[in-house]
Amino acid sequence: MTNRYVYGVMNDDPVEFEADAVGGADYVYTVSHRRLNAVVSDIDTTDPEETDEDAQRHDEILREIMERDGGRTIVPMQFGMAFESDRALKNILRGARPAFRRAINDIEGRIELGLKVVREEDADVNEEAIEEAVADELESIADQSVPNGLFSDRLVLNQSYLVAKEDRETFDDAVARLEAEHDELMFRYTGPFAPYSFVDVAIGTQQ
């Protein structure tokens, strides 16, 4: 298992810990270039299959990092980024350093929260009014938001929000108010997640 599987990149101190990691690995550590630290584990391929179990492990490692030492900021990588050597990974960190620095600054001290609003079966709802009600409650609390796909005809809204950690309770309360005011709707509130939806760092091919 000589390849490096990457979970994300941070500029905090290096880490190392035992964990149930992707591809059967049991140890997570960092590969460093200057002040950037890529959080990795060893893997026997550069093209890992995205099973449900490994996708969950990927997310759990990111959550572990986010909760360490009172909270760390990490730029999450999508599942599947693996490199043949430390050298190849450090070359990526070197080339994308400005982009990583910007991304870390953008998400520092923030988490991603998700909200899906689903209408009850056969419920007649004013979707535009619901969207406005949700926006009125949540947009002023969140730093950013992005829409996600409406993959069901019952799905009225599917949104991700970037929220400062200190505003989490305020955001929770706002979602609870919306839920109490709309009996005809189901609110599926999820998170916190690493802020996948709010970073866009291209780090090249897995080699």
TrEMBL record:
The keyword Cell inner membrane appears for this protein: no
Subcellular location field: Gas vesicle
Main location as per UniProt: other
This protein's record includes keyword Transcription: no
One GO BP annotation of this record: gas vesicle organization
Record keywords: Gas vesicle
TM stretches of this protein: none
GO cellular component: a single term: gas vesicle
Top-level taxon of the source organism: Archaea
Protein family: Belongs to the gas vesicle GvpF/GvpL family.
Name of this protein: Gas vesicle synthesis protein GvpL/GvpF
